[in-house]
Amino acid sequence: MRIDGNTKTCVLLGDPVEHTLSPVIHSALAEFTGINMVYVPCRVKAEDMESAIKGAFALNILGLNVTIPHKEQAIPLLCETDKLAEKIGAVNTLVRMNDGYKGFNTDMPGLCRAMKSDGIRIQDENVIVFGAGGVARAVVVMLCDKANHIYIVNRTIKRAKEIANEVNAYVGRRVAEAICLDEYVLIPDGRYLAIQATNVGMYPHCEEAVVNDLQFIKKIHTCYDLIYNPEKTRFMQLVEKAGGKAYNGLKMLLYQGIIAFELWNDVAITDEQANLVYERLRKSL
Ligand code: NAP
Known about the structure:
Layout: E1 8-14, H1 22-33, E2 37-43, H2 49-58, E3 63-66, E4 80-81, H3 83-88, E5 93-97, E6 100-104, H4 107-117, E7 126-130, H5 134-143, E8 149-154, H6 157-171, E9 176-180, E10 192-196, H7 214-217, E11 220-225, H8 234-241, E12 245-247, H9 250-265, H10 271-284
Helix pairs in contact: 1-9, 1-10, 4-5, 4-9, 9-10
Residues 107, 131-136, 154-156, 159, 181, 197-200, 202, 226-228, 249, 252-253, 256 line the site of NADP nicotinamide-adenine-dinucleotide phosphate.
């Protein structure tokens, strides 16, 4: 790739950023679309976020990604926030406007697009969401309009209850229910889509699973584990052993990047281009 006077620059602000796979996604997208753009990760401390965003604007930076721990903190520093990002309470993509950056959340549309590409439907599903952290909260917000019922299963029940109360008030019905991880057996018999949004099973703790009970796991017809390292978590292995389908979080990562790239460059990435980037991502794991 040739950097010249027309090269557009996008950056990632996070702390840490050393292990990010986003440069792989954006470099590949720039290459496959022929768009002259570079993507650079920048480690930025929380107290420097305001000057980093102002500085990026002054430097004519086209767009930014924002990652842990700045996704919530960035919102007051923006000129505008997209409705979905506002509802989720976190941004991961900033798009340059005339008077500052507009914040978007492409994590959840990314998960939706990944699920769609794998043929997984959400409409009227009964869903079990494991976890009640930042990502699980966003997942429940995304699901609450479409799913029939959502069980939020978390080690710390208080966090699960907070999310359930919030979305139930928003939707106007008892769509979500909090369950303590120790009490997962309380979930009634049925066929469930499960979204695994805890850290359990992430490298290097690959032998761990959020639940190990095969009798229970048989209720899961499809599992989306948001972890992508390892490629197949122990939980995914258990779901497959019990007869269900299992997918990891790599496509969610891919599509959150693709949607950010589309927003920055006003282009539509084709399925063929997405597949090429996906293969490159897999190789870089
Ligand atoms: P977070 O806010 O720190 O939340 C972590 C969640 O994991 C909490 O619900 C926590 O339960 C639970 N947990 C942690 N250790 C546990 C243990 N030993 N036993 C039971 N539960 C445990 O993290 P996050 O930002 O939401 O991220 C969650 C997951 O999503 C991570 O695995 C991350 O890799 C994945 N992720 C994937 C993508 C993607 O693009 N694929 C993007 C972002 C994140 P407590 O509330 O009880 O502490």
